[in-house]
Amino acid sequence: DCETKDTFGDHTLHIEFRTPFRPGARGQERGNSGVYVQGRYECQVLDSFGLEGENNECGGIYSIARPKVNACFPPLTWQTYDMDFKAAVFANDKKVTNARVTIRQNGILIHDDLELTHGTPGKNPEAAGPDVIYLQGHGNPVVYRNIWVVKK
């Protein structure tokens, strides 16, 4: 696991990742990881090349939405996520506007201004204020590089 020292509200995130080649592995053992925006909303990282593109596969917003298309490259190939994120708005500790995200994987639009009605399991609950970007570890050898964030 790895997380930023800084916290983020609205932002653009670029991240590159590479999943391992594990021909004997199935399901969530195929290079499982995740990128958590604000530590609250997970975009799944997984070797999903040739799979259906479900919400628990690469590009899926875990338990919320499957990608519009499976844009995965084969394992051992560098891939990219480019995310534009708009944080949820809270007033008096009550959420008044849901978070939204647009994501391109390998240059292909997989989520277009998707409304995030709730957080995803695994890290921080939804709350007011900025939070970290978190890279989830599941004991799988997923590699990340060239990560940058622009606050809005």
Features:
152 residues; mainly beta; Jelly Rolls; five-stranded antiparallel β-sheet; four-stranded antiparallel β-sheet; 0% helix
Order of helices and strands: EEEEEEEEEEE
Biggest β-sheet, characterized?
Answer: 5 strands, antiparallel
CATH architecture: Sandwich
Count of structural domains: 1
Tell me the name of the CATH class: Mainly Beta
Counted beta strands: 11
Mean pLDDT: 96
- Examine the coordinates and then state which fold CATH places here, giving the name of the CATH topology: Jelly Rolls
SS summary, helix count = 0
Distance between the termini: 26 Å
> What's the helical proportion of residues?
under 10%
As a percent range, the share of strand residues is 35-45%
Low-confidence stretches: none
- Helix/strand-derived category reads mainly beta
The CATH superfamily bears the name Exo-inulinase, domain 1
Write down the Rg. Answer: 15 Å
Layout of SSEs?
Layout: E1 2-3, E2 11-18, E3 33-37, E4 41-45, E5 79-86, E6 89-91, E7 94-97, E8 99-105, E9 108-116, E10 134-137, E11 143-151
Antiparallel strand pairs: 1-10, 2-5, 2-11, 3-4, 3-10, 5-8, 6-7, 8-9
Descriptive overview:
It is a single chain. The chain is an all-beta fold and 152 residues long. The chain has one domain: Sandwich (Jelly Rolls), CATH 2.60.120. The protein has strands at 2-3, 11-18, 33-37, 41-45, 79-86, 89-91, 94-97, 99-105, 108-116, 134-137, 143-151. It has a 5-stranded antiparallel β-sheet, with no helix packed on it. The radius of gyration is 15 Å and the shape is globular. The mean pLDDT is 96.
